[in-house]
Amino acid sequence: MQFCDDCGSMMHAEGEEMRCSSCGATQRKDADRAAEFVSTDAQTDAEVIESSPDADFEGKPTATDVVCDECGHDEAWYTIKQTASADEPPTRFFKCKECGHRWRGYS
């Protein structure tokens, strides 16, 4: 793997050059080390795990043991995150399948 000298991002092979996917900087491939580099296919959006608060929850696990305070619907998508120390139970973040209301649940 080769990293950009300008911004530190991972570079990918383009012909005889290595190109930074973030800033576009290019570097000549080092012929002695060319065998060490492996090029991979570009990542698709389907492979990306959304982690921002406004990310869609569709496709996430569904909870049926909760009730939305806004509309009373009894199904919600959820994600689990460890928000406290490791010896504490994780927090579940819910999004109502009906109205989109979000809340958190503590175990």
Descriptive report:
The strands form two sheets. A four-stranded antiparallel beta sheet has the order 4-5-6-7, with no helix packed on it. A three-stranded antiparallel beta sheet has the order 1-2-3, with no helix packed on it. It is mostly beta strands and 107 residues long. 0% of the residues lie in helices and 28% in strands. It folds into two domains: 11-45, no CATH class; 62-106, Single Sheet (N-terminal domain of TfIIb), CATH 2.20.25.10. It has strands at residues 11-14, 17-20, 26-28, 62-63, 76-81, 91-96, 102-106.
Q: What's the quick description here?
A:
This protein has 107 residues and is mainly β. Helices cover 0% and strands 28% of the residues.
How many discrete domains? 2
Given this structure, which CATH class of the largest domain is correct? Mainly Beta
Cα(first) to Cα(last) distance is 42 Å
Order of helices and strands: EEEEEEE
What ranges have pLDDT less than 50 throughout 5 or more consecutive residues? none
Strand count: 7
Compute the gyration radius: what is it? 22 Å
Residue fraction in strands: 25-35%
Topology:
Layout (H helix, E strand, L loop, with lengths): L10 E4 L2 E4 L5 E3 L33 E2 L12 E6 L9 E6 L5 E5 L1
Antiparallel strand pairs: 1-2, 2-3, 4-5, 5-6, 6-7
What structural keywords apply?
single chain, 107 residues, mainly beta, N-terminal domain of TfIIb, 2 domains, four-stranded antiparallel beta sheet, three-stranded antiparallel beta sheet, 7 strands, elongated
